[in-house]
Amino acid sequence: MTALIDYRRDGRVALIGLSRPPVNALGQALRQALAEAFEQALADPQVQALVIHGQGRAFSAGADINEFGTPAAFETPGLASLLERLAQSPKPVIAAISGVALGGGLETALACGYRLCTQGATLGLPETRIGLLPGAGGTQRLPRLIGAQAALDMIISGEPVTATKALELGLVDRLVDNADTLLEAAVDFASALLETPAPAQRPWPHANPAQGLPADFFSAYATRHARRWHGQLAPQLALEAVRAACEGSLAEGLAKEQVLFAQLESSPQSAALRYQFFAQREALKVPGIDKHTARRTVAGVAVIGAGTMGGGIAMNFANAGIPVTLLELKGEALDRGLAHVRQQYDSAVKRGKLSPRQLDERMALITGTLEYADIAQADLVIEAVFESLAIKQNVFRTLDEVCKPGAILATNTSTLDVDLIAAVTRRPQDVIGLHFFSPANIMRLLEVVRGRETSAQVLATTLDLARRIDKIAVVSGVCFGFIGNRMLEPYAREAHRLVLEGATPAQVDGVLTDLGLAMGVLSMYDLAGIDVGYRVRESRRDAIAHDPSYCKLADELYAQGHHGQKTGRGFYRYNGRERIEDYEVVACAEVLANELGIARRTVSNEEIHDRCLFMLINEGVQLLDEGIAQRGGDIDLVWINGYGFPAWLGGPLYYAEQLGLQRVLAGIEHYREQLGDYGQMWFQPAPLLQRLVAGQHTHIQRL
């Protein structure tokens, strides 16, 4: 037997162990080995039942994503045909699940007649997250096992379920305390089946998966999720696959699933989402950092500032079981901050995301204080105070005096110079930027800003810590705005300017949301606060003073006290969360344009797309050229996870490659000439973009 399978017998039961570390991905070699082990067990007259299990920390995390789009994905045995053979076994097959059973791993378990799993196991079908659908029977067997509604929710969301939830759904037959006793329990379970005797495959609990559902269930489901699915192919085809499970035989449904899977696998959307999957892995590969780099222990954290951001940051650590001290200067502010944290946890309990016990456990890990002395022994201190260089420098002077040697001192600044903050301490090697995105307890992106003197040890420690608190960490160098906000600046600048030239805020935002962005840029400014953007501009007036039109409309809104959603007016009017077009804003833009000598005209949607997106892309390419970002994938991760760029387009730089770098450069050069002095001022192509096009490169270099 191949080394990829651990095959042995325990009496009448064949134990088939998947042994392809670290997660038993079902690549062609493992599929072949599993097929051979299965046939060996069937041919052995002494074997009356089979148990399939995973060695190591996983049953199986699914298909080998590296094979998608390559000939290996189609080499025999294919996973779908292998599992069909497994499902027809004349001998009972039991899946013994520990760790994770995801994607093809769970589909393997579904093809078995029976399923056991450990209390700590996680089961799911996450294929839609990479632009696919379960393609080895998952869309057909799961509805027949747990019903169409529950199956559809699992498949469309891609969210895994806990072992307890799996038992409740009927996805597994029995829970086992831990992995140490799993095989023994599986053998006992198999022996009991043989004594009964039980069928190799039981009748499906939901032989008619749609039974009891309204006649318009599938159309209503699509309508209900239309906004969330906008532009995405995978959830729509997954819905079609589950519908097939409800309208035909298993064989017909499996055939339909294969057609739909092939359609998705060859789609640009799936290619973009798979690119994102690998970009997330690559982001953790940082020059000068490897497994041998020393790490510091982080057993206790302190957060300076108990506002919305500080409280959200504290929740990340409490959620991961790490004690955190929340420091404020005034008791009222501290009480308000702690109350807000508890309110967030209360809301999670009401939504069924947390148990009351978990709420109490997490709140117990968060301690409030008004004294710097109480954070002296913290291993990591994160400053989350007002976005002012002078204020942050004063905080770091105090931290330098108070904190123990070796403590990591982090600033949550979103735009300021981390090196200038580090310079006021006697330990700049211990200072790093940790830019959390709001709301910090929900948004997964974490920009890790490596200062000029930040040590490799500190960087390695914070990257490891990011994984502990379930963040997607991307390393940036020091510059204004780092990766995300620096790219936001020209993107937003063009959106503001286009309104002066004749577009409406709704038209600008509509072009962006039609592309798939979660929110238009002007709506985003209303959400974040017009006053916040104004303060950022105030801090850098010298850099923008040469353009009198620069975000002039936003400055006027600020002067009028229209700060966005929090005041009920900004680029739009607001009735609660409802956004309403405000024609006074359009009138104000006309007045300002006249004062500035800007000719108003009809602006096409194509121009809005090209000016906003091409300048966003151009700035990203410039960041690569300067070495602020290491690779294009890092930039794309930031914009997908921090700014709502559609993942199925791969990110701004991946999107640029699909458009064609020549087209992007030509567009920038076109507007440089067409827009006169304004174009000459701002539409300067990044030198790297020019070099790539001149060299006829179709891909942006991953520097």
Description:
It is a single chain. The chain is built from 31 helices and 19 strands. The protein has 703 residues and is α/β, with parallel strands linked by helices. The protein has three domains: 261 residues, Alpha-Beta Complex (2-enoyl-CoA Hydratase, Chain A, domain 1); 176 residues, Rossmann fold (3-Layer(aba) Sandwich); 211 residues, N-(1-d-carboxylethyl)-l-norvaline Dehydrogenase, domain 2 (Orthogonal Bundle). The strands form four sheets. The protein has an eight-stranded mixed beta sheet with strand order 12-11-10-13-14-15-16-17, sandwiched between helices. A six-stranded mixed beta sheet has the order 1-2-3-4-6-9, sandwiched between helices. Strand 13, helix 16 and strand 14 form a beta-alpha-beta unit. Helix 20 packs across helix 26 and helix 26 packs across helix 29. The longest helix has 22 residues. The chain is globular and about 90 Å long. The two termini are 44 Å apart.
Portion of residues in beta strands equals: 5-15%
Helix percent reads: 40-55%
Quote the CATH topology of the largest domain: 2-enoyl-CoA Hydratase, Chain A, domain 1
Could you name the CATH homologous superfamily of the largest domain? 2-enoyl-CoA Hydratase, Chain A, domain 1
The number of helical elements comes to 31
CATH architecture of the largest domain: Alpha-Beta Complex
Secondary structure: number of strands: 19
- On the 0 to 100 scale, the average pLDDT is 95
Which CATH class of the largest domain is shown? Alpha Beta
Main β sheet profile: 8 strands, mixed
The backbone outline, from C-alpha atoms, is globular
Whole-number total of structural domains: 3
**End-to-end C-alpha gap:** 44 Å
What is the CA-based Rg, rounded?
28 Å
Strand order of the largest sheet: 12-11-10-13-14-15-16-17
